[in-house]
Design a protein that fits this description.
Chain lengths: 216, 99
């Protein structure tokens, strides 16, 4: 976070529109003490370095749904790439220069017949290398429990109404296998360049709980 | 979890605190160092049981699991952890003071 030279009050929202989570100005918690302790012990014993921790956080902060949007936009505008993406999403993303790590990444395509949605019933597995860290609701008990039993109702709460003649497929992620949804390209975007298309691709559309949207 | 009854989905989102990002980074780096992996993270989380799920936040559960994994991997002992936590506690009353 950039250093603001004014005091923020904790009722206010952050620049990204979210409430501030109390951090280093509240009473030190037991688990925060454990984080500090584990980190310092691992550094002192030479397993990791302070620079690695710092760099890892920078890398994490730099990942955002904009990465996934570039992949989707290219698939929309380049049929050969789309085919490669649906065959091996990990390799296709790596070929675009994204670090996907060792996990398997599977892209599932929304069509007029099928709508895909991604969940991790176990915990929080998510294509974080392409989308950044998962939103809080993705990790919530309610989303994880209900998406597999009443996906259409969950989707409608996100504002996505799926017609009864469209099949809904729910994909349960695991530690080794992550899913990303390739949303259907909106008709009004036909002919746009990949750079222009990327602005239409929302985070939620790549999880399956949203649809592409005209840039604001 | 999957399929259990549950209420409405809460759409509130918080910005991750520095200590939470550090927990995430420690999990990734300890895994790269060969001291743990996603499965061992999960195994300890599952061992913690439902009460921990109800009372602890996401990254609180993660640091508890990472810490347990480090002890099991021999990265440090429980005695060393207890000593370190006592030192950290003595530094001050806020995360900023103690880190």
């Amino acid at each position: 976070m950039p250093h603001d030279h004014h005091d923020h009050d904790h009722g206010a929202l952050s620049p990204s529109g979210h409430p501030y989570r109390k951090d280093d100005d509240i009473v030190l918690s037991y688990w925060q003490m454990m984080e500090i302790s584990v980190r310092e012990l691992l550094i002192e014993k030479g397993h990791i370095t302070a620079a690695q921790v710092h760099n890892q956080i920078n890398t994490m902060d730099a990942r955002s749904p904009a990465n996934g949007a570039k992949v989707v936009a290219r698939a929309w505008s380049d049929p050969e790439f789309k085919s490669a993406l649906l065959t091996d999403a990990g390799q296709a993303s790596r070929d675009m220069g994204f670090d996907i790590g060792p996990m398997h990444l599977i892209a599932v395509e929304n069509t007029i017949l099928v709508h895909n949605v991604v969940v991790c019933t176990l915990c929080s597995c998510y294509p974080r290398n392409l989308l950044g860290l998962p939103p809080d609701w993705y990790k919530s008990r309610a989303y994880r429990s209900r998406t597999v039993i009443e996906p259409r109702k969950v989707l409608s709460e996100f504002g996505v109404e799926i017609a009864q003649d469209v099949q809904v497929r729910v994909h349960d992620s695991t530690a080794d296998m992550r899913y990303i949804v390739l949303p259907a390209q909106p008709k009004e975007t036909m002919g746009l360049s990949a750079d222009e298309l990327a602005y239409w691709v929302t985070r939620d559309s790549m999880i399956g709980v949203g649809l592409p949207q005209a840039p604001k | 979890m999957g399929g259990d009854p549950a209420g409405n989905i809460n759409h509130d989102q918080h910005d991750f605190a520095l200590w939470e990002k550090r927990v995430d980074a420690l999990m990734v780096l300890a895994s790269s160092a060969g001291l743990m992996n996603t499965d061992s993270l999960r195994r300890v989380l599952e061992d913690m049981g439902e009460e921990a799920y109800e009372t602890m936040s996401y990254y609180e559960r993660w640091i508890a699991s990472v810490s347990q994994n480090m002890v099991e991997a021999g990265a440090f002992s429980t005695a060393e952890l207890a000593d370190k936590m006592a030192q950290v506690k003595a530094r001050g009353t806020t995360y900023g003071d103690a880190t």
